[in-house]
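Annex B. Sample input.
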Amino acid sequence: MTLIIVKTIREMQKISFENKRKGLKTAVVPTMGFLHNGHLSLIKKGKQIADVVITTLFVNPTQFAPNEDFNKYPRDFDKDFKLCEDSGSDYLFLPDTKEMYPDGFSTSIEIKGITCKFEGEFRPAHFSGVATVVAKLFNATLPDFAVFGQKDYQQTLLIKKLNDDLNFGIEIVVSETIREIDGLAMSSRNTYLSPENRAKAVSIFHSIEAAKKVIKEGDTDRKIINSVLLESLKSVPELKVDYASAALADTLEEPDTFNSGDEIVILMAVHLGKTRLIDNSIVKIP
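Annex B, continued. Sample output.
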């Protein structure tokens, strides 16, 4: 099937209603484009669990702060179209800003609690923009499944909460982070890195692995785990750390001590040159 481009919400809803009438299950894969193998793994996951896959491509202005990289965010539509088509996506939902936020648009969604720390502390308006645009994408595509990547871990918790609180009734599927050969998490923003900083960026993965090692060896003190993370990151003086912490995976609570059987997430955000990178990994306390 040739990849079909849909540019309006009304047309996307019409197609989705018709597919539902036929008894077809739909998976949506929301993206901001400049696709890489991480995105493609999400499309392929959608193909495994649903009859129809809709990939959305929209660089959402409301999740960028004024000092962030909205205008220079990497874009390559022709490449994205080819990759979507080759990965088996059936539709590419490609609204413009006017379609998503028409004149007079004045609604935003705020999700409390889970968004107050980590990314929420350093990017205060970010999660409201994410929640609002994802709700609109869900209403446009009417999916049975929505597939997201684990790399944006706190975002996946936000989307699960959005789905539950507003009764969308969608099954949220979180796929594991896809990494480069040296361990760096794939990201559209990796293209910003100079060759020198690209080589240094692997220290992010190494620090997570160091923290996981002490956990598997029996350390349950959160401050010790965090200190291992930070000491490892300090091996690259050019890295500026926003946060680097271990927390309970479901709630992001940070107890002094983790208990046996707890599932925790190690997560961080760092700056390397002018590029901000995030990463995480989930581990169970022995």
